[in-house]
From TrEMBL, chain A:
Gene3D superfamilies named in the record: MetI-like
The protein's name in its UniProt record: Sugar ABC transporter permease
Record PANTHER family: ABC TRANSPORTER PERMEASE PROTEIN, INNER MEMBRANE ABC TRANSPORTER PERMEASE PROTEIN YCJO
Intracellular or extracellular location(s): Cell membrane
Domain ABC transmembrane type-1: 75-288
Length: 298, 293
């Protein structure tokens, strides 16, 4: 072994050394600001950690969380948020992509731009204007529904409508990237496949189901995974529109992490919530890979 | 649908032309109506921001709403600029710019090496980067915050800029793109006796430019919109970013929507301008990161 090491020529060693040198800044920042905080997050989730104390409590944070009604409610809200948002984002993005991918380059850019705008412009701006649109007295929405004879609704102040109102805003900020990706993959489907099917008198639905959908599978997987992760992390919209209210009806795990850590100062508890969120996202991503990944042919 | 194709074939039209022009039918009509309505739904908030920014407070809250500001006023803007707007704008640009430059440099160096060099530990390091990317970023924010608090970095520029450089998405993107650089180019320059650093800066970096452009835009916009980090890391008014500052104005100007809209316009206009200018690089970057991922 030792003789082999000695035989490594100095040029190779120099090459390795340069490689490590090039890698060092990225890896250094990664270790300090990503990898270490992750481990530290696991560590402090076993502590009662606030500004005043740092005391080992074992699994108590986790046990407490699962007996905490507010946390269970925010788990439920988070699930609702994901279950409603993700399919709607997928369906809407495919619909838009299908409608625009064969249009002229200019029209395609225009529509892609329009649907990407909310994602790219500041989320604070979008949220602030939606707060106005939803306002029970001064908002356009109640004026418009009023034209059809509906009673004014406090969209964000009502337990029944608050989460749905948040979801509507979240969807507008989530479809931009999926549409761009779907347009790109639809453009990659050889048009001869579709033409052949058309000549064989396949219906539009058959063409979609049998040709287009299978070809979209790799894109679907990616979009489902990133949309799910983004939805789990939805924060600014909730914090600025409802602060988790009314009666915790829009409080999500992500918002709970913020509240525990930065409003109540319970960093240990907040870390435990973060870990639970990470585990849930990990499980769901794995399931998605297993379900949708198996259909991927290339 | 099929009858139109037959008619088209009879008339000597190539079926591939029909693929471009879908036959006019009821499904298509409904589709176009939905597309138009959705477009309006997506554009309306921006229309409302821009027109609202020029409405008087009395007309902004009027019902029925004033669809277009008939008596435009600049009052909202002068009210808005009574706040530390210039400082916030500077902070936003400064933080986003530093983050962008650092991420591009660090990611280009690492991505190139990971794609084109072989050395012990290469695979493990790349796997670590990819694994971290699959985890939600917000999960590390609490431990990261306590760590930065221990450093005494809360409410500082370095606390806002440095942690974001560690996020491995850039490395991943640059690694994917570096793989497309032909190995012969690297071999040839080696024979010419080029030093590693010179080769990187004169040969590799220019080849990476398209991907770096996309990464730069992503990072800039991502940093500008990283509301959660800004919220937990800034304490004083003078350290706030533009979106963060606008968000805090919400408490002050509760229903003074004119001022809020002026602020909202200001916070999003730079991003929209960047997006429209670099839309092509942006679109390519998104597909690059996904398709090869």
């Amino acid at each position: 072994m030792e003789t082999r090491v000695r035989k490594i020529n100095p040029n190779l060693l120099r090459d390795w050394f340069m490689s490590y040198l090039f890698l060092l800044p990225a890896f250094g920042f990664f270790l300090v600001f990503v990898a270490y905080p992750m481990l530290r997050g696991i560590y402090i989730s076993f502590f009662n950690y606030s500004l005043r104390k740092f005391e080992y409590v074992g699994l108590r944070n986790y046990v407490d969380l699962f007996h905490n009604e507010t946390f269970m409610k925010s788990l439920w809200n988070t699930s609702l948020l994901v279950i409603i948002t993700v399919p709607l984002v997928i369906v809407f993005s495919i619909f838009v992509a299908m409608s625009i991918y064969r249009k002229r380059e200019f029209a395609r850019s225009f529509f892609r731009g329009v649907f990407y705008l909310p994602a790219v412009s500041s989320v604070v701006s979008i949220t602030v204007v939606w707060g106005w649109i939803y306002h029970p007295n001064y908002g356009v929405l109640n004026y418009l529904t009023g034209l059809f004879g509906a009673e004014p609704i406090s969209w964000l102040g009502n337990e029944k409508t608050a989460l749905l109102s948040i979801i509507a805003v979240l969807i507008t900020t989530s479809v931009g990237q999926p549409i761009i990706l779907y347009v790109a993959s639809l453009g990659n489907i050889p048009s001869s496949y579709i033409e052949a099917a058309q000549i064989d008198r396949a219906t539009s639905w058959q063409i979609f189901r049998k040709i287009i959908w299978p070809m979209l599978m790799p894109t679907n997987l990616y979009i489902i995974v990133i949309t799910t992760i983004n939805t789990f992390q939805c924060f600014a919209i909730i914090q600025l529109l409802t602060s988790g209210g009314p009666y915790y009806s829009t409080s999500t795990v992500m918002y709970g992490v913020y509240e525990q850590a930065f409003k109540l100062g319970n960093f240990g508890m907040a870390s435990a919530m973060g870990i639970i969120l990470a585990v849930i996202i990990g499980i769901i991503s794995t399931i998605q890979f297993k379900t949708f990944g198996s259909d991927v042919e290339y | 649908m099929s009858s139109t194709i037959q008619a088209g074939m009879k008339a000597g039209v190539n079926p591939s032309d029909l693929a471009g022009k879908k036959p006019w039918n009821i499904g298509n009509l409904i589709g176009n109506v939905i597309l138009t309505l959705s477009t309006l739904f997506f554009i309306f908030p921006f229309y409302w921001i821009i027109t609202g920014a020029f409405k008087k407070q009395t007309t902004a809250t009027a019902i029925p709403p004033e669809w277009f500001p008939l008596h435009p006023t600049l009052q909202n803007w002068s009210d808005l600029f009574k706040n530390a707007i210039w400082r916030w704008t500077f902070n936003s640009f400064f933080i986003s710019f530093c983050e962008m430059a650092a991420v591009c440099l660090v990611a280009a160096l690492a991505g190139y090496v990971l794609a084109k060099k072989s050395f012990p530990g290469r695979k493990i390091i790349f796997t670590m980067f990819v694994a971290a990317m699959a985890l939600p970023k917000q999960v590390i924010l609490v431990p990261l915050f306590t760590m930065l608090a221990d450093f005494g970095w809360v409410n500082t520029y370095r606390g806002l800029i440095l942690p974001a450089i560690g996020w491995p998405f850039g490395v991943f993107l640059m690694k994917q793109f570096s793989q497309t650089i032909p190995t012969e180019v690297i071999e040839a320059s080696k024979i010419d006796g080029c030093s590693e650093v010179r080769m990187f800066s004169t040969i590799i970096l220019p080849l990476l430019t398209p991907a770096l452009g996309a990464l730069a835009i992503f990072t800039f916009i991502g940093s500008w919109n990283d509301y959660f980090s800004q919220l937990i890391m800034t304490r004083s008014t003078s350290m706030m970013t533009l979106p963060m500052g606008i968000a805090t104005l919400q408490g002050e100007y509760t229903t003074n929507y004119g001022v809020m809209m002026a602020g909202a316009a200001l916070a999003s206009v730079p991003m929209i301008a960047i997006f429209l200018t670099f839309q092509k690089a942006f679109t390519q970057g998104i597909t690059m990161g996904a398709v090869k991922g």
